[in-house]
Design goal:
By secondary structure, this protein is of the alpha/beta class. The protein has one domain: Rossmann fold, CATH 3.40.50. Helix content is about 45%, strand content about 10%. The strands form three sheets. It has a seven-stranded parallel β-sheet with strand order 3-2-1-4-5-7-10, with helices on both faces. Helix 8 runs parallel beside helix 9. The N and C termini lie close together (about 10 Å). Bound molecules: NADP nicotinamide-adenine-dinucleotide phosphate (NAP). The site of NADP nicotinamide-adenine-dinucleotide phosphate has 23 residues, from helix 5, strand 5 and strand 8. It comes from Ceratodon purpureus. Keywords: NAD. Belongs to the NAD(P)-dependent epimerase/dehydratase family.
């Protein structure tokens, strides 16, 4: 479906693109219920070894979803492995989807009961983890899933109330135990905001970040904590510094469609920047999967951004052109005008910090070829109806 959508986009003019659905759905079609999945998983745990069983379970899942034959490339040795994801949000749900298609077993966390049931109904083993809410930590069943995992991904951002990363501050001991078992790899989803202001200069992973506001400082501290955990526990930790994430259901197209008349202060501030790093969610998935399956065993930091750190105003203009022709009346934009109230918010230095983030390392070390090297192809794919990597 994704390929078909891309082909349409390549050959289509704005008239075709205007007929794209008003908003892309984040649903995907893995058609197997939570009960069936749980039953299969229990059968696997009670009987055959997990890896051996994992193959059979996942083959069955795939057949029922009608998606054709998967390639079993889960672990670095070509055997499906199991991943525990802290924070099954936008990006990590896409990642979970990609990994499951490749034969991985996936368990993860979210904060609310509603979301937990929704994840279970999509066939994921889901647990609640909400340390902000009366220190609601993982329950025993979740800890068992954690201990069984060969890989862990954390997508939980730092929160002010914690001295360090919420996952590490709540479950360091369980993580250390996992490391003394089968845990091989941890991925931490971070942000390019840690770099701070380089007045538009290029930044690579080697430079010492100089975060400029409280959030970015907390993010940098969380990175350091995870890398230190890796050293102490003898586990490979990869930190992924993500640019602004966009994809189906979350892109400039959605902003133009629904809310351009009322841009948030943060959006207005970003509109003034000459350079903004961004990345399509499908490319994040591809980078993280490559890192997980690379078999690399040393801690590393990777920037995950596209090749084209264009100003936000240019992206919005392109989105508008995809959605409206010149005779239509596009919504009013205030890309280049800061409203009165927001001018004072310039104090939020992270939003106006200028840098261009290099992706050389992921290309050289992980042989990544970006699916969307620029926002143009990314937005075209979304406008033409592609739901990848959620399909
Ligand atoms: N959005 C961007 O443009 C951008 C850019 C660079 C970096 N990042 C960072 O990259 C990561 C992935 O981004 P995303 O946009 O995909 O994230 P997202 O959709 O906001 O998902 C974050 C996940 O973490 C969970 N979570 C958040 N705060 C938590 C807390 N205090 N305790 C426990 N769980 C918590 C959320 O739980 P629920 O599922 O219950 O909500 C969700 O599952 C995040 O750390 C984000 O901050 C984002």
């Amino acid at each position: 479906m994704a390929l078909l959508a891309m082909a349409v986009a390549a050959g289509a003019g704005a008239a075709h693109l205007r007929s794209a659905p008003a908003s892309a759905s984040l649903e995907w079609g893995a058609g197997i219920g939570a009960d069936t999945m749980r039953g299969l998983r229990n059968g696997v745990r009670n009987g055959r070894s997990m890896r051996e069983g994992g193959r059979r379970v996942l083959r069955l899942v795939w057949c029922r979803s009608g998606g054709g034959e998967p390639d079993y490339e889960g672990g670095s040795d070509g055997v499906p492995s199991s991943v525990f994801i802290f924070g099954m949000g936008y990006t990590s749900l896409a990642l979970a989807n990609s990994l499951r298609k490749r034969g991985w077993e996936v368990a993860g966390t979210c904060r609310s009961e509603e979301k937990r049931s929704a994840l279970e109904s999509r066939g994921f083993q889901a647990h609640r983890f909400n340390p902000d809410n009366d220190a609601e930590c993982l329950r025993e069943e979740a800890i068992q899933d954690l201990h069984r995992s060969t890989h862990i991904v954390s997508s939980v951002p730092p929160v002010g109330d914690f001295d360090c990363d919420p996952v590490l501050s709540s479950h360091r001991e369980a993580l250390v135990q996992a490391a003394s078992g089968g845990l091989q790899w941890v991925g931490y989803l971070s942000s390019t905001s840690v770099y701070g202001d380089w007045q538009g200069g290029w930044v690579e992973e080697e430079i010492e970040p100089r975060p400029v506001d409280r959030k970015a400082v907390a993010r940098r501290e969380a990175e350091k904590s995870w890398l230190q955990f890796g050293d102490e526990a003898g586990v490979c930790v990869h930190v992924f510094r993500l640019g602004g994430i966009y994809g189906p259901g979350r892109s400039a197209l959605d902003t133009v469609r629904v809310s351009e008349k009322k841009l948030s202060t943060r959006q207005q501030l970003r509109g003034h920047k000459r350079f903004t790093s961004r990345v399509h969610v499908a490319d994040i998935c591809q980078v993280v999967v490559k890192a997980m399956e690379s078999g690399q065993r040393t801690g590393r930091v990777y920037n995950v951004v596209d090749d084209d750190p264009s100003p936000r105003a240019e992206v919005m203009a392109y989105a508008r052109a995809l959605l409206y022709d010149e005779h239509e009346n596009p919504p009013v934009t205030s890309d280049n005008e800061l409203s009165e109230g927001s001018a004072s918010a310039v104090a939020n230095a992270s939003l106006v910090a200028e840098k261009r983030v290099s992706n050389r390392r992921v290309k050289e070390e992980l042989q990544v070829e970006l699916l969307h090297p620029s926002f143009r192809s990314g937005l075209e794919a979304i406008a033409s109806g592609s739901n990848a990597p959620f399909d």
